[in-house]
Amino acid sequence: MSSFSQHPVQPRSSAGTMPLTPFVLLGALWGAIALTWLAWAAGAVTAALTGRPGGPGFGSEFVTDVLRGRWDIAYPHVNHALVGVVYGVLVTAAAAPVIIGWIVWERRRSHAGDPLPSLARPNEVADFTPGGVTKRARQLRPSLADTPAKQLKLADTGLALGTMLLPGRRGPLLRASWEDGILAVMGPRAMKTTAVAVPLILDAPGAVLATSNRADVWATTRTSRALTGTVWVFDPQAITRTGQHWWWNPLAAVASVEDAARIASHFVQPIRRDKGEDFWLLAAEDLLTSFFLAAAASGAAMSDVQAWLADANDDEPVGLLFDHGYPEVARALRGRQNGAPETRDGIYETARTAAKCLQDPRIMAWVNQPADADLPRFDPDAFPVSTDTLYLLSKDGAGSSGPLVAAMTDQVMRYGVRRAEARGGRLDPPMLCMLDEAANICPLADLPQLYSHYGGRGIILVTILQTFQQGTTVWGERGMGTLWGAATVKLVGAGGDDPRFAADVSTLIGEHDVATLALTRDATGHLSRQVSVRRQRIMGPEDVRALKRGTAILLASGARPAMLALNPWFRQVGAPVLSSHTAAAIAQISDAAERERLIGDLAADGVTLPTPPAPAVLGGTSRGATRPGNNLAREHPDVGHQPTPDPDETAGGPGAAARRATPTVPRLRGPAGRP
């Protein structure tokens, strides 16, 4: 007959495998002696307090009298009831430290299956502790070099990840540095938004770009971020229902074939994610590249691109490319248009599918020059060196504004690199790019390759995925592997049900030695013990899958794995204020949605209401906020918002001429008649 128990081997925890009987006997003996001595001390203390003579000294005779109940001999001159009260007080005072010590020891000692004793200690993640991250921040941010460490704000030193969990207690708050790239893989309802996206956005010292397919991030952070800079909301599909207060020209940054190809890739990537790479996608991407280049070079608009896509026989873009110095692209486009009709039509249809969002007038209003000349234009070149916030919102699915979200994200980050190069190599303060729902609405094709490069430029990427498979669907096995390896900080949260990913994480966490105690009783009743040591996973795949909501595994480069308790915004200082901001924003969206429903019902009945003005934004968080010193810009979000150019940057830049140019090229319809 055998039984087994197992614990991590010392020194990380208590082995718990030694025979306990001798220790129990010794403890009981010394406990009895201590209780007897306290009985004698109670009589002595009572006599001293009452001014009475003391009783016999402590010894065998006193012990015998107490055990036989001869109280008059043991306590001859004092009240026996009072002695009992004093004895109870003394026993309680003596037992309290023992009980407290036992509780502390019990909480901190290891139990079978507890991974914390074998995970990282604070000294093993020293670069992420307050002292280590402060030192790195002073090295990475020249503006903090002369600031005494005690005067630094915690938010200036790095990005808060979570509180370290240790056996029986909590450790320090760990932070990522201003050169780390963060990848968070967390399932639904695992606090991705509340504990990762929102806190990092609120604490960011510089510009913030945030993508999402819901309004929750915007609702919670917009008011606070408006206190540090202007808030820009790109919301063509009316997720926040704040209306349009500015516009953006995606073609302004196109000054080469490469620039045009990057924009085209953002339109094709969602289809590539679903269907994989094939001839039609490559040809459609090449077609879109030609159209974007022709429109940018000639000063045309995105509406012209859509018009060219609609007519496979329209050779206007061919003529524009010849006119503006791109004969190679022009000849390639003309050859594609003159190809076999079946092939040409298939390519055009694929390109139309990729650029389906350009058929939506709501979306096109944001990327075409408006009739209102006073409507400001967003400048992605100035944004990285500001303290502004850019929210990029899009719904999922075909026809969404996701390709434009990806294109704007890419442009802002590329201009950020230029600004960093003009400032000595890094942005200070850094720019935070919070790519929530990146796989759905911002699937940048070369994001895995950009991760390691952008960290060294002061452009901090935080990509949030629901599952690892979501990333492999977008970037493929190799691309997702590159992204995983390039991210220096990885957070694995609750809600993951991918067996393969759970097994991989379990392997990365590692193994430890486990002492296994075997108890065997033979036929005569004799009990024998045997202790053996074996290697075992610190956390098995089943443990990774069963992570509690609100916790995450930290896998950081150059450090042992650690367990973190996430710090959601609603448990931090200022939570009541943020809650009120969120409630006000949600109420605003609800009111606007209800009004739309009522207008739709009335329209169905033949009743027409006057068009209301654009809804005001609460709390100065969108382009309607009011703040002393910049009333005009806060009253209308983008009015007057042209951040001061960086004096260190040389003139020009990608698309500089296109930004300054006025579209004066006449429209050319029909045969271009080019050679």
Report on this model:
45% of the residues lie in helices and 13% in strands. It is α/β, with parallel strands linked by helices. It has a domain at 21-115. The strands form two sheets. The protein has an eleven-stranded mixed sheet, sandwiched between helices. β13 and β14 (562-565) form a beta hairpin. α1 (21-50) runs antiparallel to α4 and α9 runs antiparallel to α10. It is elongated and about 120 Å long. The termini are far apart.
Helix and strand composition category: alpha/beta
Low-confidence stretches: 1-7, 10-17, 614-675
Q: Which strands sit side by side, in order, in the main sheet?
A: 3-2-14-13-10-4-9-8-5-7-6
For the biggest sheet, the summary is:
11 strands, mixed
**Counting H and I runs of at least 4 residues, what is the number of helices?**
24
Overall number of strands? 14
Please render the helix and strand layout as text.
Blueprint: E1 2-8, H1 21-50, H2 60-67, H3 71-74, H4 80-108, H5 130-140, H6 154-157, E2 159-166, E3 169-176, E4 182-185, H7 192-203, E5 208-212, H8 216-226, E6 231-234, H9 257-275, H10 279-298, H11 302-310, H12 316-323, H13 327-337, H14 341-354, H15 361-367, E7 389-393, H16 402-422, E8 431-436, H17 438-441, H18 447-455, E9 459-465, H19 468-486, E10 489-493, H20 499-509, E11 511-521, E12 527-537, H21 541-545, E13 551-556, E14 562-565, H22 575-604, H23 631-635, H24 656-660
Parallel strand pairs: 4-9, 4-10, 5-7, 5-8, 6-7, 8-9
Antiparallel strand pairs: 1-11, 2-3, 2-14, 10-13, 11-12, 13-14
